[in-house]
Design goal:
Protein name: Phosphate uptake regulator / ABC transport system regulatory protein
Shape: flat
GO biological process, one term: negative regulation of phosphate metabolic process
Pfam families: PhoU (PF01895)
Radius of gyration: 26 Å
Order of helices and strands: EEHEEEHEHEEHHHHHHH
GO molecular function: DNA binding
Domain SpoVT-AbrB: 8-54
């Protein structure tokens, strides 16, 4: 680490010298333009002008011999890391399965469109600009969908409703699509500071949203898992087990809902500490229910119920993760406010 003293130039401007070795490595010389990105935590990030040219990212890949699954992974990976234009070359020519897979990808990934198709080339392009995206609203929408999925999955289990379970499974794609969108913006923001500004957020907030969205995506997976298991129960869920399962599952969902309010709606942080305690109590209750399965005569049913309880336990754990993020967020905010007041007092005393 190097240090520099701030100097007053012309009576109205503060100046700071740059380390020559760093400037040379970044291609900075007299007359170069630097971009300054102030953050709410008091930091100031400096970006060399040459970095601004990376806004449009174009990648060309040779996917000759890729099957449909490999093609999906290639396109999805490039989308998530923030590529704007992806050219896929298949020297042997694309077949109907490849083209159908490509069309499905455009439906599954927000903003992705096929701009050109030839016998040996596919050109994908992202048409959504970061400035038109609200990450917070995307995460809030994930929250609504996930909570509805979880509620319906529990109802499907309790009522042995396979039709409802099927509808739950179809909604998992909506959550995955939103999560991919959030991940893409998060990945781009790591390397491109202008993405953070265009999103109208801070790096800290963006990480909090990404972390919360990640928990929602996992909860959606477990709602889907419960819906799938509904079809395997075949009405063998004992009445007393049904009531207890519904109770702990509802408690787990409330933990997630309240925890997300701490991060997304600025609810008092004391709620987050309450959630940590509630999550521990729920884990103990689920463990007790799990032990009761040992006495079940139907081993297959007991195994399935055990899997359902595991999904409840994990759902509450993901809610706990969100609550812990809310606590860290509050602590950092308090530290920043304290430092700001301390600096203001120091300046007033000078």
């Amino acid at each position: 680490m190097e240090t520099r003293k701030v100097q007053l130039s012309g009576g109205t401007t503060f100046t700071v010298s740059l380390p020559k070795q760093w400037a040379t490595e970044q291609g900075i010389s007299s007359g170069s333009t630097l971009y300054l990105h102030p953050d709410t935590d008091g930091t100031l990030l400096i970006e060399a002008g040459t970095h601004q040219k990376s806004e449009h990212r174009r990648v060309r890949m040779d996917v000759s011999g890729y099957d449909s699954e490999m093609l999906v992974q290639a396109v999805k990976s490039m989308y998530l890391v923030g590529v704007d234009e992806l050219v896929l070359v298949e020297r042997n020519g694309y077949d109907d399965d490849h083209l159908e897979t490509a069309m499905d990808l455009c439906a599954d990934l927000s903003g992705l469109e096929i701009m050109e198709t030839t016998e040996t080339k596919l050109v994908f392009q992202n048409i959504i600009d970061s400035s038109s995206i609200s990450i917070r609203k995307s995460v809030l929408r994930m929250k609504l969908i996930v909570l509805a999925m979880h509620r319906d999955a529990v109802r499907a289990v309790v009522n042995d409703d396979t039709a409802l379970a099927t509808r739950v499974r179809t909604r998992d794609g909506e959550v995955d699509k939103l999560f991919c969108l959030v991940t893409r913006q998060f990945e781009r923001a790591i390397e491109d500071l202008q993405t953070v500004e265009s999103l109208g957020t801070t790096r800290t907030e963006l990480f909090e949203y990404y972390h919360t969205a990640r928990q929602f995506e996992r909860i959606a997976d477990h709602a889907t898992k419960m819906a799938t298991l509904t079809m395997e129960l075949d009405g063998s869920f004992a009445d007393e087990t049904t009531d207890e399962f519904a109770r702990v599952a509802t408690d787990a969902r409330r933990i997630v809902e309240r925890a997300s309010e701490v991060v997304l709606s600025d609810v008092n942080v004391t709620t987050a500490f309450d959630i940590l305690s509630e999550a521990s109590d729920l884990d103990a209750a689920v463990n007790e229910l799990d032990k009761q399965l040992y006495g079940r005569e139907d081993a297959n049913a007991a195994f399935t119920v055990g899997l359902l309880l595991d999904s409840v336990r994990r759902t509450a754990a993901y809610g706990r993760n969100i609550a812990e993020m809310g606590i860290r967020q509050a602590v950092k905010q308090r530290e920043h406010e304290t430092a700001t007041r301390r600096e203001a007092t120091r300046m007033a005393e000078r």
